[in-house]
Amino acid sequence: MPANKLSDESHFGTLTKRWSAYLESRSIDHFAEFTMHLNNLGSYFGELRLPGLTRLCEGLENAAVAKLDATHPLPDKDVAALQRQIDTLEGALASVGRPEGKGIQQGLARRKTDPSDRIDHWIAPRGVCIFTAPGSEEISENISRQLSFIGFDVFQSDWTTPDEPEGRTNLAVIFLPPTTGLTDVELDFISAMRERFRVSQLFYVGGAQDMSAMISLMRNGIDVTFPEGEPLSSLIMQVIDLVEDSEKPNYRVLVVEDSKVASAAIQRTLREHGVDTLAVTDPAKLLAEINGFNPDLVLMDMQMPQFDGVEATRVLRQIREHKSLPIVYLSAEMDIGKQMDALRLGGDQFLTKPFNPIVLSAVVKTKIERYRTMLRSTQTDGLTGLLNHTAAKSQLDKLFTNRGDLTDLAVVMVDIDNFKAINDVHGHPVGDLVIRGLAWLLKGKLRANDLIGRYGGEEFIIALPGASPQRAFEVIEDIRAAFATLPHLADDSTIYATFSAGIASLPGYSDATSLTRAADKALLEAKRNGRNRVVAATV
């Protein structure tokens, strides 16, 4: 691959090295290592919100898994078929490695950069392509206007002449279909665009909420279908969410296994897939270890001294913090009745020993991702998609406590000016639109690792780790100026709104509560001084 693409030290470089090792040795051990890394690579692309690459990687992984139990060395025709899929994946990778798109390599570099160096770094690409059928021009303009205002580079085209400029890398591709429905020609067009935009998320807006229709769209390459009647705000929020750099912490698995040999094998398998683990070989210490490690999932051996895995699970389920924590049993137990009893008494899944390492990692990652999704749904505000009040305060406390050597941290309190008057004059739906517009702007303008929450009503809280007081002021002032010019549609007219903000920064505050209180006092001062301004607190 060219020098500006993924380097030999990258995830894909590791994959090609393992494939080359298999081609040289043709041993089952090297093929298993190659297959295991495919699972890790697919998860990596998923974290970077690159669905096209994820799909290609999963297809290659499925083909490789199907050959794990075959006789090795594989026949030349099977090797050639796998090689073609690897070449296809490499070609797709090339389309996201351009300097102008910044792509994966810079995305990975950002994830390893100190927060203080990242104030102006954003995930790329931020291109959006909209294919508009006759009759959908107004909707297309509305989507384009909203996305363009918060920083997206939007290109619009019809379904017959997709003359998008060369060199663009789109984060999302949106299809606005004909009002008469899709013909085979239009489905073929979607398939062709799926092939053209391999790494983009493809959205279809206005489809029927019908299983057959939605599956047909999926088979032709659509990732997400928004049924007719779904508010456009849902689409815009999903596109904005794609910008996030997925600064998610590593998966954390607590391995409860009295055998040190088995525990080491499990940990080695999960470590290969980027999962952090902690082993508990003495089940009597389970509660102490789980509270300190805070895992996303527990792998529980069934047969242990003192008490078995089912009894340990029943204890965990009595503790509020662990009632929904995923617990997966690992055991040589083959009796289906006993397995079912174990699941009824609190477990989520049962894997038998000896375990398949690929199946184990896939189960662990799937369970954890669903668990985290469930947690996020309880922590987000329904109108804006931001953190709710409780979650924002909790995460700010953690950010303050775990800041380590981070000397710069700014907390911002934001309040929309004269919001009651907006509701009284234009109605609550317009007020909701203004709140959502500010939320979109904040998500579009701020970094993925910044904390953004809806504190209550028209008030927001923001935390900027690694931002000096001066830089924090400049960032919020830029957003304030942008929001003042953001149009909000109210019936047949357009209205504008402003906000006031107060900022408090380290050092000088002993905890997150005092930092927030200082930012709130600065906000009150901004209100008293005429609104539509940013005020920094003085210690």
Tell me what the structure shows:
This protein has 539 residues and is α/β, with parallel strands linked by helices. Helix content is 48%, strand content 17%. It contains 19 helices and 17 strands. It has a 5-stranded parallel sheet, with helices on both faces. The protein has a 5-stranded parallel sheet with strand order 7-6-8-9-10, with helices on both faces. Residues 1-9 and 97-125 have low confidence and may be disordered.
Gist of the model:
The protein contains 19 helices and 17 strands.
Give the tally of structural domains.
4
Major sheet description: 5 strands, parallel
Fraction of helical residues: 40-55%
Task: Count every beta strand, where a strand is a DSSP E run of 2 or more residues.
Answer: 17
**CATH fold description of the largest domain:** Alpha-Beta Plaits
| Principal-axis shape | globular
The largest sheet has its strands arranged as 2-1-3-4-5
Rg of Cα set: 26 Å
CATH H-level superfamily title of the largest domain: Reverse transcriptase/Diguanylate cyclase domain
CATH architecture type of the largest domain = 2-Layer Sandwich
CATH class of the largest domain: Alpha Beta
Please count the helical segments: 19
Output mean pLDDT.
82
Q: Pairing-aware structural class of the strands and helices?
A: alpha/beta
Oligomer: single chain
Query: Uncertain segments of ≥5 residues (pLDDT<50)?
Result: 1-9, 97-125
Indicate the proportion of strand residues: 15-25%
State the end-to-end CA separation: 54 Å
